[in-house]
């Protein structure tokens, strides 16, 4: 019997916490609808918060890097808050009214 394969730890580039496999989402830094191909693995809660706060057009034009995402004040506040939570923490996320209107 072969030994089990080691679990490779993936760190969320936003909140810098290890991502459990069940909470791992691939985020297109530039949305696929805008021609993006490069992805980064994020916590599901971080990924959903990005899409709750920003439109795909904003992501493509202004927030196509992790550094740019962290410079967005409401997203930065969320990341600072979620960093204190356990690695498998998840909370439901609602799109902001501004994003829903677009």
TrEMBL record:
<keyword id="KW-0255">Endonuclease</keyword>
<keyword id="KW-0378">Hydrolase</keyword>
<protein>
    <submittedName>
        <fullName>HNH endonuclease</fullName>
    </submittedName>
</protein>
<dbReference type="GO" id="GO:0004519">
    <property type="term" value="F:endonuclease activity"/>
</dbReference>
<keyword id="KW-0540">Nuclease</keyword>
């Amino acid at each position: 019997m072969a030994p089990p394969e080691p679990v490779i730890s993936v760190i969320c580039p936003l909140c810098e916490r290890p991502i459990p496999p069940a909470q791992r989402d691939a985020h297109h830094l530039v949305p696929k609808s805008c021609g993006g191909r490069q992805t980064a693995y994020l916590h599901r809660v971080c990924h959903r918060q990005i899409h709750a706060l920003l439109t795909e057009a904003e992501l493509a034009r202004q927030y196509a890097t992790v550094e740019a995402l962290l410079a967005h004040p409401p997203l930065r506040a969320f990341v600072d808050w979620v960093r204190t939570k356990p690695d498998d923490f998840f909370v439901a996320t609602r799109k902001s009214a501004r994003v829903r209107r677009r």
